Amino acid sequence: MPHRNNPVAQRNIPVVPPSDDKRWRVVDATMRRHGYAQSALIETLHKVQDSFGYLDSPSLIYVARSLSVPLSKTYGVATFYNLFRLKPQGEHLCVVCMGTACYIKGGAKLLSSAEQLLNIVAPDTTPDNAISLVTARCVGACGIAPVIIYDNQVAGSVSKDQMTAQLKEWLKSSSSV
Fold first, then answer.
1. Can you give the residue range of the structural domain that contains 102?
2. Looking at residue 5, what is its pLDDT?
3. How far are the Cα atoms of 1, 3, 57, 161 from residue 68, in angstroms, in the given order?
């Protein structure tokens, strides 16, 4: 499908989605709405992730070619922002804040304890896809440090025991399914 405003397409190099999945139509509509402008990169990456759950290599290549953005820039944006995921996320998401206040009040120790309990190193997902453990540079809740976000729910002044209880509950519920 040639894109009129896309220099790659103007050279008659076809830009085709990585699969026949209909969700690519939503992604294409986002790029088309922005005239395939390079400035639509972040919004397009969000749309891909919203549609597929994460950004894999074929997706990044497709978006880069469609928007005429160097693949290195596309990958750089996808890896710079911690909201983008390059691998499928687990059933549950645990985000440990590593901002200055959280770090000083024990965020690093919480992260280390979580990694030990889950037997993974952030950012990663447990082998059973039960829990994804990631870090954030700062979540903006410094007054209640240390902060952990459990499935998009902010928890402040988190102790090791509280975190361990939550992670064990998730592990237990995923193994009983």
1. 92-175
2. 56
3. 15, 11, 16, 49
